[in-house]
Design goal:
The complex is a heterodimer. By secondary structure, chain A is mostly beta strands. Chain A has a single domain, classed as RNA polymerase II/Efflux pump adaptor protein, barrel-sandwich hybrid domain (OB fold (Dihydrolipoamide Acetyltransferase, E2P), Beta Barrel), CATH 2.40.50. In chain A, the strands form 2 sheets. In chain A, strands 1-8-6-3 form a 4-stranded antiparallel beta sheet, with no helix packed on it. In chain A, strand 4 and strand 5 form a beta hairpin. Chain B is of the alpha/beta class. Chain B has one domain: Aldolase class I (TIM Barrel), CATH 3.20.20.70. In chain B, helix 4 runs parallel beside helix 5, helix 6 crosses helix 8 and helix 9 packs parallel to helix 10. Chain B starts with 8 loop residues before the first strand and ends with a helix. The chains are: A mainly beta, B alpha/beta. At the A-B interface, strand 5 of A face strand 1, helix 1 and helix 3 of B. Strand 5 of chain A pairs parallel with strand 1 of chain B, so a sheet runs across the interface.
Chain lengths: ~80, ~290
């Protein structure tokens, strides 16, 4: 997955998916993580995707909460790296 | 929706897969083509597109049938076909440099030959443009029309697939009334008789309410008509209107059924929760060539 340089974790291109629902955040605000750690689960009608960490960093603020919808490219959380 | 089990969760794509998807979308859009990956909202789209493989759908994106497990829209195209489709598809496949493709189509009960002549023309054209390519044709039943089936076989795809979809008891509940279990077996049997050198393949979705014994019976029925390659995957309803899910089948059941299938003599078996009928299809020929 890729992260823009604006320090946001954005919903990556998941293939043939328009919109997802945020199921569960696997790291909380203030928590640190390493590259490849699972950060958030999102789901479509058919599939649950796990979005992982693009680099080492820390979760600053979750901007899309569990149960909310997101589209490809939407910011899900603010990160530091 | 019931909680999805851990074995159905997939990692969001890697950067390489993202580039593959982007490239594939560009080619599809430039040539005005459709993939099943898109129509079926397949969970493996990122993985397959990233690896440069795809299942192309011919004859439009509207199906004359209304199977309850499928997301492809139902309608009547009133005989409309796109004569340029075979050439565009052959160009796209050459552009992508693919060495194995799966071609399928919607059901076209509005056409006398069910679309077989256009399907065959596409295979012929692709082989002309990409002489070394291997082609898997995942065909409809052509309403049992033997002439149409022979037209398709004459274009000489390397693998011919026709999906039985579910066990005998559940077929009337989930497949369109024009499709049925025995017709599917008859189509597969005819392929094996007419062209014994062609690998025949079929696919079953699990989780619709079938019992293990019924799955084994279907596997035996398929082997009985000469089918050599089999895929088993978890049914995932593509929308709220689709046939409801009966249960999530655990990975160990898929493994156990794969062993049974190999014991019955299938030379290619893909069995797992996220397996779809074209998943890792390029391995079919190596697995069945000995």
């Amino acid at each position: 997955m890729e992260q823009d340089n604006d320090n946001y974790l954005r919903l990556p291109d998941l293939g043939e998916v328009d919109e997802v629902t945020i199921v569960e955040w696997l790291k909380g605000e203030g928590e640190g993580f390493s590259t490849g750690d699972d950060l958030v689960e999102v789901e479509t009608e058919k599939t649950t995707f796990i979005v992982d960490a693009p680099s080492d960093g820390r979760m600053v603020r979750i901007t899309r909460k569990e149960g909310e919808k997101a589209r490809v490219g939407d910011p899900l959380a603010e990160l530091t790296s | 929706m019931a909680d999805r089990p851990a074995w159905l969760k997939v990692k969001a794509h890697t950067a390489a897969e993202a580039r593959g998807m982007h490239a594939m979308r560009g080619v599809l859009s430039r040539h005005n083509l459709t993939t099943v990956c898109q129509g079926a909202r397949c969970p493996n789209a990122a993985e397959c597109w990233g690896a440069g493989t795809a299942t192309f759908m011919l004859l439009g994106n509207v199906c004359t049938r209304a199977c309850r497990f499928c997301a492809v829209p139902t309608g009547n195209p009133h005989g409309a076909i796109d004569e340029g489709e075979p050439a565009r598809l052959a160009d796209a496949i050459a552009d992508l440099g693919l060495d194995y493709v799966v071609l399928t189509s919607v059901d076209r009960d509005d056409l006398e030959d069910g679309g077989a002549s256009l399907f065959a023309a596409a295979i012929t054209r692709i082989k002309e443009r990409s002489p070394h390519i291997k082609i898997e044709a995942l065909i409809p039943d052509f309403s049992g029309n033997d002439v149409a089936l022979r037209t398709l076989i004459a274009s000489a795809p390397d693998v011919i697939g026709h999906n039985i979809e579910t066990i005998r008891r559940l077929s009337p509940d989930h497949r369109d009334h024009r499709a049925n279990y025995d017709l599917t077996l008859r189509v597969l049997s005819h392929v094996a008789q007419i062209s014994p050198g062609t690998i025949t393949k079929s696919s079953l979705m699990l989780g619709l309410g079938e019992k293990r014994g019924e799955v084994l019976e279907t596997m035996r029925d398929l082997r009985g008509v000469g089918v050599r390659a089999l895929t088993l995957g978890q049914y995932l309803p593509p929308s709220h209107d689709a046939a409801p899910l009966a249960r999530y089948v655990p990975p160990d059941e898929f493994s156990s059924l794969a062993s049974e299938a190999r014991g019955l003599g299938f030379c290619f078996v893909m069995s797992g929760p996220l397996v779809r009928s074209s998943y890792h299809a390029a391995q079919t020929i190596p697995a069945c060539s000995d």
